[in-house]
């Protein structure tokens, strides 16, 4: 298995790594890919699975950010639209063009949203995915069959990118590994030490599978741990002050009957000033998101009852058949790490731009940002790490570096669920070729069944555990424990009744 080979390599290595990246989300894996493709020797360590945190819990959009345009953040939108185009060029098999329709209930709304989306087209330039246009009332109803027709006047059509965040992340990791990066999951950081007498940092982590403590040396360290960046910064420098503030966003997954079309719907105004998306995804309907300020990040965030009610109410106002809690197939929450402000600013107004900080030991922290701009964030972070550590300067190569796109290499097997396309072969492929080490890794971030239908995931967990256990040599006691742990996690994806 990949992890066993990587762990053996790490244990035997005596030389310092050029860069050790902490964090296996989009930014961390992006950093590993960027650095490895420059010819640097890179180790990435991740406490959980790749994408366990925010990177698997997005709205599945590769976009400039229509809402940021309304806030006047032209620079962020232009950069994100450029980076969206880079992802489409480098990973064409992993992304898709998604038509969106904005329902308009007054002439003023039609004029306003049409003008704004024309500017969105203009900022995309030659990387535009399609020209926006106004739809007449009848065409809007035809393309959004369940839209609320009362007072509906028109619609505005525009185009953006859609993707499976976990799938693209695994493909980025495979590309990084193929470029020479060593990727080690379930490796918990416990210590970072920089001695005045040495230009290198000593990093200690625990292999959570063997419980062995392992030390490595690094010429440069990049902290790409997302919502947990401040905690890692304090390991490196106890005097480091907080850099981030946090908000939680949730998504509901519903049956496609609530929007039986290949078009997505963008709800332009919600009571908290956000936009809401209803997007076809894996033959279901993904609806979100929210903006709930929270004090501190947790590894397994859970949707609050009030958030679920908010999304149902906001989406229901635009639908003829309104969804209820009984219609929810799955609900998931993610945490946004936002660059903080000294002022009392609503999290919805905090910047989605990224920031790089270098502490007294020389550790580079990359924080903030969004999925769409992961590549540029990684490039900036690696550039800074090279500068701080005095490494051999080589320009980034990721702007036109193709991303690995493989269909399952193990194609045989029986269906896991009657109404879902995944097979036992997909489970084996996840473990053998895609870094998966647990039932949750397979059901949440390789097949997405937990995100699509939490009850179905619970039903098949023992069968999946049997396959994963066979491949990884689990005892019966270990299999039972894994099922128990997955059941506890999956409970947070089940819709609760107020």
In a nutshell, what does this entry contain?
This protein is of the alpha+beta class and about 500 residues long. The protein has helices spanning about 1-10, 25-35, 65-70, 75-90, 105-125, 135-145, 165-180, 230-235, 305-315, 375-390, 425-435, 440-445, 450, 455-470, 475-490, and strands at about 15-20, 40-45, 60, 95-105, 135, 155-165, 180-185, 185-195, 200-205, 210-225, 245-255, 265, 275-280, 285-290, 290-295, 330-340, 355-360, 365-370.
Walkthrough of the structure:
The protein is α+β, with helices and mostly antiparallel strands. It has three domains: 2-54 and 167-243 and 349-400, FAD/NAD(P)-binding domain (3-Layer(bba) Sandwich), CATH 3.50.50; 95-160 and 245-347, D-Amino Acid Oxidase, Chain A, domain 2 (2-Layer Sandwich); 424-493, no CATH class. The chain contains 15 helices and 18 strands. Strands 3, 4, 5, 6, 11, 12, 13, 14, 15 and 16 form a ten-stranded mixed beta sheet that branches. Strands 1, 2, 7, 8, 9, 10, 17 and 18 form an eight-stranded mixed beta sheet that branches. Helix 2 (26-37) crosses helix 10. The longest helix has 19 residues, at 454-472.
């Amino acid at each position: 298995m990949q992890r066993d080979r990587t762990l053996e390599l790490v244990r035997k290595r005596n030389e310092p790594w050029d860069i050790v990246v902490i964090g296996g989300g989009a930014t961390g894996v992006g950093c590993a890919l960027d650095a490895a493709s420059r010819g640097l020797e890179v180790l990435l360590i991740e406490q959980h699975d790749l994408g366990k945190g925010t990177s698997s819990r997005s709205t599945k959009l590769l976009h400039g950010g229509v809402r940021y345009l309304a806030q006047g953040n032209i620079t962020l939108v232009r950069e994100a639209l450029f980076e969206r185009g880079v992802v489409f060029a480098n990973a064409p098999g992993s992304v898709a063009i998604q038509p969106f329709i904005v329902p308009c209930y007054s002439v003023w709304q039609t004029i306003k949203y049409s003008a704004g989306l024309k500017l969105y087209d203009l900022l995309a330039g030659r990387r535009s995915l399609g020209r926006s246009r106004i739809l007449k009332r009848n065409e809007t109803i035809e393309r959004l069959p369940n839209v609320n027709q009362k007072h509906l006047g028109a619609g505005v059509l525009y185009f953006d990118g859609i993707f499976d965040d976990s799938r693209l992340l695994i493909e980025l990791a495979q590309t990084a590994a193929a470029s020479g990066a060593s990727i080690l999951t379930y490796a918990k950081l416990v210590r970072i030490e920089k001695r005045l007498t040495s230009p290198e940092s000593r990093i200690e982590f625990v292999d959570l599978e063997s419980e062995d403590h392992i030390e490595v040396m690094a010429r440069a360290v990049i902290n790409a741990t997302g919502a947990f960046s401040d905690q890692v910064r304090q390991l490196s420098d106890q005097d480091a002050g907080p850099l981030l503030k946090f908000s939680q966003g949730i998504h509901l997954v519903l049956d496609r009957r609530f929007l039986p079309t290949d078009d997505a719907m963008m709800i332009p105004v919600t009571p908290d000033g956000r936009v809401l998306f209803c997007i076809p995804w894996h033959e279901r309907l993904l609806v979100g998101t929210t903006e709930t300020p929270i004090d501190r990040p947790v590894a397994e965030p859970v949707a609050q009852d009030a958030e679920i009610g908010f999304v149902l109410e906001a989406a229901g106002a635009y639908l003829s058949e309104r969804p209820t809690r009984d219609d929810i197939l799955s609900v998931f929450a993610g945490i946004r790490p936002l660059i903080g402000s000294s002022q009392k600013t609503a999290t919805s107004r905090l910047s989605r731009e990224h920031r790089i900080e270098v502490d007294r030991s020389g550790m580079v922290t990359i924080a903030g940002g969004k999925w769409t701009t992961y590549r540029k964030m990684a490039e900036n972070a690696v550039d800074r790490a090279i500068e701080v550590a005095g490494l051999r300067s080589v320009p980034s190569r990721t702007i036109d570096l193709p991303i690995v796109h493989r269909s399952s290499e193990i194609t045989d097997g029986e269906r896991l669920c009657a109404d879902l396309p995944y097979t036992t072969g997909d489970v084996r492929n996840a473990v053998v070729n895609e870094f998966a080490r647990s039932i949750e890794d397979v059901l949440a971030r390789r097949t997405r069944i937990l995100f699509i239908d939490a009850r179905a995931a619970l039903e098949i967990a023992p069968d999946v555990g049997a396959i994963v256990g066979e491949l990884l040599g689990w005892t019966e006691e270990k299999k039972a424990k894994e099922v128990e742990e997955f059941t506890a996690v999956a409970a947070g994806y089940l819709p609760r009744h107020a």
